[in-house]
Amino acid sequence: MPRSGREVILGIGGGIAAYKACDLLRRLQDAGFLVTVVPTPAALNFVGSATWEALSGRRVYSQVWENVPDVAHVALAEKANYILIAPATADLIARLAHGRADDLLTNVVLASDVPKILVPAMHPNMWRNQATQANVTTLRSRGFHIIDPDIGRLTGPDSGVGRFPETGRILKEFYELIGYLDDLKGKRILVTAGGTREAIDPVRYIGNRSSGKQGFAIAQAAIARGAEVHLIAANCNLPDIPGVAMTSVESASELERALAREFPSADALIMCAAVADARPVQTSDRKIKKEFLTEISLVANPDLLASLKASKKPGQRIIGFAAETQDLESNATVKLTGKGLDLIYVNDVSQGAIFGSDFTSGIIIDKTGPLLTLDNVSKDTLAHVLLDQLLRQIG
């Protein structure tokens, strides 16, 4: 299952501090994370499922025996990028240290290989107890990150170490641990992906080999870095990306209309889609029998990037792509200049290379000349490299 880079499982242990995790959930959402809450059954005594569902906008389960057909513990583990358990009670810490799997949360933890962060909260005597400290040491030795509790007022008149930390401190340590990038927050990124198809008749079309993988990788990287992302997908057989708004198109004219609608409000356009250069002058609404399919008259499609050049506002940036089989740098530079691009990535597609692959090789060029040469890197890597260069362009 694809991971967005922003999927967080927020585990809730059965302690009074559970109510404070409501603020933590909201703050994670404000930072662009997609949060699924998994409370222990005991936690529901403090904050009920209705509250977590209302705040997260997602279904909430606490037992393995709920939603059985979806195999929830495996599905959640495969989807998550991080597991953050706050509060983590002494009982929950003990069960995790012993590898127990007696509710949905502990099953998800065992089934997952992503970073796991625990925020203990309990009475001082329970936190200092040798058993709890031994369990914490065990979990740390297994790679769990433990955010030590604060010192302060607890339930009733008691005070001491064991207080649930302030949300700001939890987020600070969480962000430091995961290497959190939020450098595109507040930016609206428009991405196109795939290849347009121009109908000849109901079963035939003029098209190209673009799979849409690079555009989807860029959309996923941008949403992971905090941007608001709109993806215009042309004939892509790829799963939707959580958090990304998407418009599906088929032809160049449909793509042109979608761009006209979305580009004016975008901070940047990353034009990955491969647009068919021409379309049939006439399209049949019935299948043409092969004996009559002797020739097709074509007319050029509009140059979408060139048309956007005229409407481009100060501060907007456009990144284009070029697929070439020879003279990569010179051909890409001509396209960069002629179409008013700020950046272009050109790759060698000789003998069908790149299309449908998970890897790419090419050159990133801006108005000053070549910036970077990439050799057989993943399309996910290229996505982040291009976004880094976009940030340099934006300043």
Please, could you describe this protein's structure?
With 395 residues, this protein is of the alpha/beta class. It folds into 2 domains: 7-178, Rossmann fold; 188-394, CoaB-like (Rossmann fold). 33% of the residues lie in helices and 25% in strands. It has 13 helices and 19 strands. The strands form 5 sheets. It has an 8-stranded mixed β-sheet, sandwiched between helices. A hairpin with a 5-residue loop joins β6 and β7. It is elongated, with a radius of gyration of 26 Å. The two termini are 35 Å apart. The model has no long low-confidence stretch (mean pLDDT 90).
The total count of strands amounts to 19
**First CA to last CA: what distance?**
35 Å
Give the class from helix and strand content and strand pairing.
Answer: alpha/beta
- The name of the CATH superfamily of the largest domain reads CoaB-like
CATH class of the largest domain: Alpha Beta
CATH topology of the largest domain: Rossmann fold
Helix content: 25-40%
- Strand order within the widest beta sheet: 12-11-8-13-16-17-18-19
CATH architecture descriptor text of the largest domain: 3-Layer(aba) Sandwich
How many domain modules? 2
- Principal-axes geometry comes out as elongated
- The average pLDDT score comes to 90
Number of helices: 13
Strand content: 25-35%
Runs in which pLDDT lies below 50 for 5 or more consecutive residues are none
What is the CA-based Rg, rounded? 26 Å
Biggest sheet features: 8 strands, mixed
